[in-house]
Amino acid sequence: MRVLLTDRFCDRAKSTSVQTDYFDENVSGLALRVSAKGVKAWTLHFTEPTGKRARITLGRYPSTSLANARALALEAKSAVADGRDPRGVGNEMSVNDLAARYVEIHVASLRSADEIKRRIYRNIVPVIGNVKLSEFHRRDATRVVDAVTKRNAPGEAMKCFEDLRAMLRWAVSRGDLDHNPIEGMRKPQGSKPRERVLSDDEIRTLWNSLPQALARNPEHQRVIKLCLVTGQRVGEVAGMTRSELDLKHKLWRLPGERTKNGHPHTVPLTPLAIELIGKSDTEQVFPNPEPVAVAQTVYRVQDRFGIPHWTVHDLRRTALTGMAELGVAPIVLGHIANHRTTTKAGMTLSVYVQHAYEKEKREALELWADRLQGIIAGGAQVMSMGRGTR
Length: 390
Fold this sequence. Notes:
The protein is an alpha+beta fold and 390 residues long. It is 47% helix and 11% strand.
């Protein structure tokens, strides 16, 4: 059937049989092929130099617009006129190609670059890497999400969907796609926020089991212990550098590019923390551990620790909860955790209160370190921060 194709016609076109070809009156040979299920694809019918009739697919509608399809068809017809095979002409970019460009050009500048790259190459590329952008369909996103969900990782599934959506939006902004095929899709529900806090007995058991449980990973042991001692994130601890440390003043100064919220953060170091940091000639305090590697190691050998399932992030929650039980004020806990929602929550705090609570942070962390060492030894009692404390 030959018609004057318009955007409105393409949007409403339906098949009258198993499949229907609507040939464009403007560009000979270009057709919108519509299946009985409503799938629409652009095809170009042409005659090879040998005289044999042939057909190639130029992309799917609406990922490939009418205007783009006409441009691709004319480019392919020009190749035929020059005696070249038009099958290599057109929008052949795949998800794998897009992922490589996205990671190199855009993701590399983000603070969470390593995690995003890991998720893309672990969960997205292996499943739909070979799918051409011109043929990308919503069900391809569903395939990615389903594969991750089957691993009982709802939080990871939600983040992978967000990564894919962001990558496709980036492609649209660059002109690699005319529109985002999964725009408007509901993202999968992530896992509920964890509330796990280790008990005193669990802390003792975990701490004392680390040398045997992670015998081949002494650096992982130190990272895990420092997370519990300082209450900081595993990524911040694992990435600690000597230039961030001021051991003379017992401080760890995290630059904004190394924190989750982008704001510089100072962590007072207790004697226990300094002992765990140790001394070395390398700039990286922990040359080998990556945050993801530490978390994966913990997940893989859960049965070695002698306590119910836990994650490295649970240690941060445990430390902050332990300090709260010792009477540390919420505003001080917010400064220790570098939570801007607590420390700069309102006009009064953000504008008028510029106090950094460094003294209070040190008192709280030292009190927690004393308590922690008592727990590990097997006999600590909870002591609140009264007026006379320290």
